[in-house]
Amino acid sequence: MTRWQASFIFTIGAGLFGFTPIFVKLHLAAGYTLSKLIVSQMIIAATILWLIACFKKKKLRLTRKTILSLMLAGTLNGITGIFYYNSMKYVPASVAIVLLFQFVWVGVLYEWILDKRRPTLPTYVTVVLTLIGVLFAANIFTDDFSNLPFLGILFGLISAFTYAGFIFVSGRVATQTDPLLRAPLMITGSLILVLIVFRPAFLFTDEVFHSFWLYGLGGALFGAVFPPLCFSISAPHLPSSLATILGSVELPVAVVAASIILSEQVTVLQWFGIVLILFAISFNEIRSGILHLIDKKKSNVTE
């Protein structure tokens, strides 16, 4: 798989993830708790992904170490959801989004520390432009955010570190394993964690027949089925820093989706932020593409 193909698939996964806030808002508007959304989302996602894996003609035997590694890596996805949603209990959604999107520079930091790959100047530029775009796209400048609760800020920042970690390990753990097996194993790890944390007693009462499963289905497809599959396929072929930058396409998609589906008003400053994020995402790829063409022309001339 080429870098361009991997970048495209990863961007699709991150973009689909941007639809999840729609289902969160609809779920909360219907009067359900976030625990019901997270639990139902993970149960449905694990079921769908394992059904897909069962239809694979070629059965692969995995070692216990590989299985445990993938499940452990998958818990980062569940941890991200837990802290991100809890952050929104204490701070406005726009602030929680900005805190989560610190994963852009956190991912670059992980690659620097763990892979010993120092960020280049274009990477620094891309990260700065992305974070500025996030501030505008999240509409952070229109409200008074003085005296924000410490817990809300802490939970939001933790979600940034865990989400960056999830993207990082998606390209590092058991990369030789078929993506159709990697994704369900990772989500299973996330599901086990969520069940331990929330201890969902409602699964054994009449509440289990309520309509929150419909919102869980939407959250599962766009938050825990398609994105992990796309990440499992593409992340092993991308540098961690590039993967985290591509992941920021989630916010523009979330803002546009909320505007179209929920009829939420999008300001001029938000549109500016969206354009800036999209430009930042494409900055590195356009630059590398130009350099590749120049090198190709030079090689043709020398021949």
Per DSSP, the total helix count is 13
Biggest sheet layout: none
Mean pLDDT: 84
Residue runs with pLDDT of under 50 for 5 or more positions: none
How many structural domains? 1
Class by alpha and beta content: mainly alpha
Strand content: under 5%
Report the span from N to C terminus: 27 Å
Helix-strand topology string: HHHHHHHHHHHHH
Rounded radius of gyration (Å): 20 Å
Total beta strands: 0
How does the overall form come out from the CA principal axes?
Answer: globular
Question: What proportion of the residues is helical, as a percent range?
Answer: over 70%
Helices and strands, with pairings:
Elements: H1 3-17, H2 20-29, H3 34-54, H4 64-90, H5 93-100, H6 103-114, H7 121-137, H8 150-170, H9 179-198, H10 212-234, H11 240-247, H12 250-261, H13 268-302
